[in-house]
């Protein structure tokens, strides 16, 4: 019985290590030409969920060419959500994996939204090539470009998204990590409670 508990404790530790990844949600065009939040600081292994509002989209770009898609060379993210019309009226979210610590800039490619300030980014510097500098450079661009097809992420409905968020934590506004236990783990704990064992989980 002790061996079982020790093995389970080891399994729990492995699970909890994996669940340190966070899910960040960015709304795209909710009530104006804005990404909310405008910038964020995800870690490698985190997931960013873009929730599109009509009729917006999100395209990753580079600082040096605002409102144009990034080339995708090297470690920088290169993604495009596809048009809003592919999201089942916003029910499907565009989900991107964070795979590097490099700054990632993005914009809405619809009409002149990018030039009008609809830009955002993650892990941007707080001065120099910051979000304000990207927005003011974007304002001078003659036209924005849209990639031909979805790239660099997945369009997921809520049930598909649940399986992503089940293995990750949702960061709370206060900054305290709130960890969501995978259902298999909940089952293990329930199972052991039935057997009269108590498992303590340390974070
Ligand atoms: C990735 O982005 C950063 C910041 O914009 C840039 O300095 C770097 O050259 C880019 N890397 C590649 C491989 O494009
Ligand atoms: C993101 O990560 C998930 C889980 O590891 C993987 O299944 C998916 O293919 C990745 N998506 C992209 C676009 O790389």
TrEMBL record:
Q: Span of the secretion signal?
A: 1-21
- Highest taxon of the source? Eukaryota
Q: Which InterPro entries match?
A: BlueCu_1, Cupredoxin, Ser-rich/MCO-related
Q: Which residues form the Blue (type 1) copper domain?
A: 25-120
Under SUPFAM superfamilies, the record lists: Cupredoxins
Pfam families recorded: Copper-bind
Q: Any idea what this protein is called?
A: Blue (type 1) copper domain-containing protein
What does the organism's lineage look like at the top? Answer: Eukaryota, Fungi, Dikarya, Ascomycota, Pezizomycotina
């Amino acid at each position: 019985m002790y061996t079982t508990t020790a093995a389970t404790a080891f399994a729990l530790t492995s699970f909890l290590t994996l669940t340190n990844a966070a899910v960040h949600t960015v709304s795209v065009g909710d009530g104006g030409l804005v990404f909310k939040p405008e910038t964020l600081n995800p870690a490698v292994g985190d997931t960013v969920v873009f929730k599109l509002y009509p009729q917006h989209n999100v395209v990753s770009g580079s600082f040096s060419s605002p409102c144009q898609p990034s080339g995708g060379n090297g470690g920088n993210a290169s993604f495009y959500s596809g048009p809003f019309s592919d999201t089942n009226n916003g029910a499907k979210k565009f989900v991107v994996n964070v795979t590097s610590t490099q700054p990632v800039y993005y914009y809405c490619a619809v009409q002149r939204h990018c030039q009008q300030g609809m830009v955002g980014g993650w892990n941007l510097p707080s001065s120099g090539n910051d979000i304000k500098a990207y927005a003011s450079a974007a304002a001078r661009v003659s036209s924005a470009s849209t990639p031909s097809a979805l790239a660099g992420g997945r369009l997921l409905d809520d049930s598909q998204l649940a399986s992503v968020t089940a293995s990750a934590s949702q960061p709370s506004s206060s900054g305290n990590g709130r960890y969501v236990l995978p259902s298999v783990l909940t089952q293990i704990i329930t199972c052991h409670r039935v057997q009269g064992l108590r498992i303590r989980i340390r974070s």
